[in-house]
TrEMBL record:
<keyword id="KW-0418">Kinase</keyword>
<dbReference type="GO" id="GO:0008673">
    <property type="term" value="F:2-dehydro-3-deoxygluconokinase activity"/>
</dbReference>
<dbReference type="InterPro" id="IPR029056">
    <property type="entry name" value="Ribokinase-like"/>
</dbReference>
<feature type="domain" description="Carbohydrate kinase PfkB">
    <location>
        <begin position="6"/>
        <end position="292"/>
    </location>
</feature>
<dbReference type="Pfam" id="PF00294">
    <property type="entry name" value="PfkB"/>
</dbReference>
<keyword id="KW-0808">Transferase</keyword>
<dbReference type="InterPro" id="IPR052700">
    <property type="entry name" value="Carb_kinase_PfkB-like"/>
</dbReference>
<protein>
    <submittedName>
        <fullName>2-dehydro-3-deoxygluconokinase</fullName>
        <ecNumber>2.7.1.45</ecNumber>
    </submittedName>
</protein>
<comment type="similarity">
    <text>Belongs to the carbohydrate kinase PfkB family.</text>
</comment>
<dbReference type="InterPro" id="IPR011611">
    <property type="entry name" value="PfkB_dom"/>
</dbReference>
Length: 297
């Protein structure tokens, strides 16, 4: 089983008719979605989060289930609701407004026993810097404990920094939290821009070197339309995207990459081939409105 942990939000995205379409998205959920597409049932995909008890929460849970993703560990928080973001497109540029501070997902790590059950038997667990950012200090500690226990029981831990400054008190808090999770990480899937902003890396090679020195076994550094640089175990690689497209909506490209890369690796594909497949799906994501990729990808 592949488990992704984090926050899924309600999304209002402008549609062609000049109105808004309701969707559901969030970095780890988008990755779980892409992994489910890539795995075609070969390995079950589970999404671990918390939702509220209102109709919007019910709609989100239904969406997760309808996608063929296991929602058995979607916790209910009495009286709460899910987070929301609204997309604005002006002159081709997208901006986001968020309502998420009170979202039920901030409670996803309140119950250590729930987390332990959610991750029992997982082969691979994905978390991100966004997952950690939304949690209160006690939740962060509980999540790190649960990841440590899952890893001790044989799971691999995958992590994308996905640094979003607005979700952290300051950069120091983000850096300190990332440094605490790294010793538990087997597969790091950062984007160079985030690592440069947070750790001052001068080039993707510096990110690979820093994370490898921190003990991370597999490091894959995304870098937009530039080459993906990485090192998995003893194997180093640099994979140039075969196709560079004009973005329609770049939201979720990194997430589609992560889910596809992990799905390919779970099925035994070599690292460089898995990167190429992930780039191909990410390129499709860039051409698709909304954060989720189409099944044909
Ligand atoms: N214009 C493009 N054409 C083709 N592929 C692209 C394009 N932009 C991004 N990609 C692909 O998407 C991957 C992820 O993009 P990027 O490095 O920008 O991720 P990101 O900033 O983490 O995205 P996200 O917003 O989802 O967090 C890249 O590694 C690349 O393979
Ligand atoms: Mg990203």
């Amino acid at each position: 089983m592949f488990a992704a942990i984090g926050e899924c939000l309600a999304e209002f995205a402008p549609n062609e008719a000049g109105g808004y379409a309701l969707g559901f998205a969030g970095d780890t959920f988008n990755a779980a979605w892409a992994a489910r597409v890539g795995l075609r049932g070969a390995v079950p995909v589970r999404y671990v989060t918390a939702i509220g008890t209102d109709w919007m929460s019910d709609a989100m849970r239904a969406r997760i289930e309808a996608a063929g993703i296991d929602a058995a560990f979607v916790r209910r928080v009495e009286g709460a609701s899910v987070g929301l973001y609204v997309i604005r497109v002006e002159a081709g540029e997208r901006s986001f407004a968020y309502w998420r501070r009170q979202s039920a997902a901030t409670h996803l790590a309140d119950d250590p026993a729930f987390l332990a059950r959610a991750l029992a038997g997982a082969r691979l667990v994905l978390v991100s810097g966004i997952t950690l950012a939304i949690l209160p200090p006690a939740g962060r500690a509980a999540l790190l404990d649960a990841l440590g226990a899952a890893r001790a029981a044989g799971a691999e831990i995958a992590f994308d920094t996905n640094y979003r400054p607005a979700l952290w008190r300051d950069a120091d808090e983000a850096r300190e939290t990332v440094r605490r999770v790294l010793p538990l990480v087997d597969i790091a899937l950062p984007t160079f821009e985030d690592e440069a902003a947070l750790f001052g890396d001068a080039a993707p090679a510096a990110t690979v070197a820093r994370l490898a020195a921190a003990g991370v076994r597999d490091v894959v550094v995304k870098n937009g339309t530039a080459a993906t640089l990485g090192r998995c175990g003893a194997e180093s690689f640099e994979v140039v995207p075969r196709e560079v497209v004009t973005p329609v909506d770049s939201t979720g490209a990194g997430d589609a990459f992560n889910g596809t890369f992990l799905a390919c690796r779970l099925q035994g594909m070599a690292p460089a081939a898995a990167v190429a497949a992930a780039q191909a799906v990410a390129a499709r994501a860039v051409l698709t409105r909304g954060a989720l990729i189409a099944d044909e990808a």
